[in-house]
Amino acid sequence: MGRPQIHQDSYYSRHKDKCLKMVRLYRQTFPEKYKLSRKNYRKKQRKKNNENKEKIIALLGGKCSNPFNLEHGDFLMDKRCLTIDHVNDGGNRERKTQGSSYHIYILNKIKKGSKDYQLLCSNCNQIKEFIRRTIS
Predict the structure, then answer these.
(1) Whole-number Å distance between alpha carbons of 49 and 128
(2) What is the dihedral of CA 98, 103, 106, 107, to 10 degrees?
(3) Which domain holds residue 20?
(4) DSSP letters along the chain, please?
(5) Phi/psi of residue 82, each to 5°?
């Protein structure tokens, strides 16, 4: 278990050059270990993101909100087809500000009762985007 994220952020911001120099040195000295540790880190983060996304899907009802009254068939509740949509758009801006903690941020907002998000299947999401682009 590491230090709390707040401490890491403040230490890194105060000693950024030193930290980058250490990483560079480690990467040059142990290239195979570095590649393996990055690969394992990405794998762990992907797993965490998927778990958080599944929690979000469960909190939002687990199926497409179907705003266009489409005939969905079997993929209505298929998690592979579901996307987290911002009801009033603005998701790209929000994603840029949150970075890698984006799913945690959404999860916490939904737990607090936010109605800013909905689940859409890929088809409904594409239709909504098409309408948004043609109107603006």
Answers:
(1) 25
(2) -140
(3) 5-135
(4) ----HHHHHHHHHHSHHHHHHHHHHHHHH-HHHHHHHHHHHHHHHHHHHHHHHHHHHHHTTSS---TT----GGGGG-TTTEEEEETTS-HHHHHHHHGGGHHHHHHHHHHTT--SEEEEEHHHHHHHHHHHHHH-
(5) -85, 140
Q: What tens digit of pLDDT does each residue of 45-98 get?
A: 999 989 999 999 999 988 888 888 777 776 677 788 898 898 888 777 877 787
125 and 72 Cβ atoms separated by less than 8 Å: no
Q: Which residue carries 């088809």 as its tokens?
A: 123
HSE of 95, CA atoms in CB hemisphere, 13 A: 7
Total domains in the fold of the chain: 1
Structure tokens given for 64: 């497409």
